[in-house]
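Morning - zinc ion inputs below, output right after.
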Amino acid sequence: MGKEKKMSRAKSGLTKVVKLTDNCTKPRNAKISRITPHCIAGKMTAEAALTFFKNSTNSSANYVIGHGGKIGLSVRETDRAWTTSSGKNDNKAITVEISNSAGAPNWPMSEEAVDAFVALTVDICEYYGFKKVVYYEKPMTIAIGEEATEKWITSLDVPKDALLVTLHRWYKNKACPGKWFVKRLPEVVSRINKEIKSTKKEEKPATEKAQSSETKVIVTVSALNVRKGPGVDYPITKVLKNDKEVRTIVDKKKGLASRSSKNMIEWGELKSGAGWIAMKHTKKV
Ligand SMILES: [Zn+2]
């Protein structure tokens, strides 16, 4: 309600570090309707990536994501970054340079970086009122370059309430965002869409109820396993080490506390989609 009135903001609330570069065109000349993930072609922290664009004379991105998953702002959302070798794309897109964890030929990324991209895109969709993210695989028969790519995109009939994923490799003959990420994209997009949906579902019944179903917590132990489901019988997806972030829990379920005791404890699902954590190792904020 009133959400569609909001047209622009400087940055997402998920931004942890800001270092703006002059490499941009102010303001963007089109409404935001796309998201363009790039690979940075190196293993970098968010701070290092921001410094790189600050010192560069001809390149930038709206956001950078470091290999640890930290989100940095290089160009405000209201401005057009110089990222995708295409003015037509970058005026419409929020561009995101994601750190790699290794180099050619696959250009993989860390799960933390991918999680951060998911969270950032969900946040962008919710702020600008997009109901979903769509990704279309570009046929090999469509030439690389702005003209052919834009013509193809026009022919797609992208739904108005959808944020379109576009790729650098469509505009210029290069690997970006890399084989590894392109392969992961359908899964990444479906995760984003699931998270947008779950927020929408909660909004429906009563606003108060929707708000109370989310809990903000901080982790109280130095290392906490994140698991695929609620309980130690689910595999570990990642470990939160010395985690100081405020985490949002969107669902709670009872699950095994340990394999030996069969004790049941409360588990909470992270809003980021990373998995479930034992609530006893957190405290409410
Ligand atoms: Zn790129």
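Note: The two ends are 27 Å apart (CA to CA).

O.
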